[in-house]
């Protein structure tokens, strides 16, 4: 546990992603509840009602004045409606497609961080890459690291365009992985397997596969090569998928999602 004394405000903190990040921050124990502010249009956050120390407001200006760091968690389409003046604050955005330059122009801040996360943050399972403006200090980086590590795994990157690709790949949890799982469950049902059994089997498969890949040193490509080299039933399936160019279909989908992220 690493405690910090700064106040952190989350604009949009009761939405799906904002509440996930707030939950992660509070669960980590690194930030006291009284140091957390949440703002939204209603001024209410039922998910945090039991924690009376968390500050809830519908006034973004009040939140900005009270906090050292402001996290913007509103949908990208709502960003033009956000009117805050935070020139002396550390401002972090988890909005898809909103650039560092756009953040600075709208907020007046120069210490800017653009990050990507996912609702899996509520379980400390998100992957949250981030990039910082040149004005972000080492102490700023420290607090960003504390917050995003509370959400799961994180890396600082140094090419802003990569954030659009991470938005496509790691933002929509369970998104693309759920599509693959659905395809497998649908296949099982077509083979006469009861829907509830197919569902349970596929859920357990993805839990086991994700856990093994997260815990072990082998990369996904290593697992694929090991199965193909074993030359068993899985090798036959993988070979058929590769011959059908499944990787290209996946890449095309991810590029479409990244292009959409750029369009916000």
TrEMBL record:
Residues 160-262 form the Pyrroline-5-carboxylate reductase dimerisation domain. GO terms for molecular function: pyrroline-5-carboxylate reductase activity. GO terms for cellular component: cytoplasm. Its main location: cytoplasm. It holds the Pfam family P5CR_dimer. InterPro entries: 6-PGluconate_DH-like_C_sf, NAD(P)-bd_dom_sf, P5C_Rdtase_cat_N, P5CR_dimer, Pyrroline-COOH_reductase. It catalyses: L-proline + NAD(+) = (S)-1-pyrroline-5-carboxylate + NADH + 2 H(+); L-proline + NADP(+) = (S)-1-pyrroline-5-carboxylate + NADPH + 2 H(+). NADPH binds at residue 60. It is found in: Cytoplasm. Belongs to the pyrroline-5-carboxylate reductase family. Catalyzes the reduction of 1-pyrroline-5-carboxylate (PCA) to L-proline. This is Pyrroline-5-carboxylate reductase. The gene is proC.
């Amino acid at each position: 546990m690493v405690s910090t004394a700064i106040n952190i405000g989350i604009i949009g903190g009761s939405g799906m992603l904002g509440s996930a990040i707030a939950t992660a921050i509070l669960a980590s124990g690194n930030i006291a509840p009284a140091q957390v502010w949440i703002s939204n249009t209603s001024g209410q956050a039922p998910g945090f009602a039991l924690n009376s120390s968390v500050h809830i407001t519908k006034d973004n200006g009040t939140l900005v004045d009270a906090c050292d760091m402001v996290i913007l968690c509103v949908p990208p389409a709502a960003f033009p409606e956000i009117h805050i003046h935070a020139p002396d604050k550390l401002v972090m955005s988890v909005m898809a497609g909103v650039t560092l330059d756009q953040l600075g122009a709208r907020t007046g801040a120069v210490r800017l961080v653009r990050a990507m996360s996912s609702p899996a943050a509520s379980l400390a399972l998100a992957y949250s890459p981030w990039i910082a403006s040149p004005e972000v200090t080492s102490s700023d980086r420290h607090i960003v690291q504390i917050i995003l590590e509370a959400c799961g795994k994180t890396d600082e990157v140094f090419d802003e365009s990569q954030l659009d690709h991470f938005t496509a790949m790691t933002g929509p949890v369970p998104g693309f992985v759920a599509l693959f799982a659905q395809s497998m469950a649908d296949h099982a049902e077509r083979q006469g397997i009861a829907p509830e059994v197919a569902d349970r089997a596929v859920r357990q498969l993805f839990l086991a596969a994700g856990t093994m890949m997260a815990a072990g040193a082998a990369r996904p490509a290593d697992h694929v090569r090991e199965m193909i080299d074993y030359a068993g039933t899985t090798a036959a399936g993988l070979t058929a998928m590769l011959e059908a160019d499944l990787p290209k279909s996946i890449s095309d989908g991810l590029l479409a999602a990244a292009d959409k992220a750029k369009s916000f």
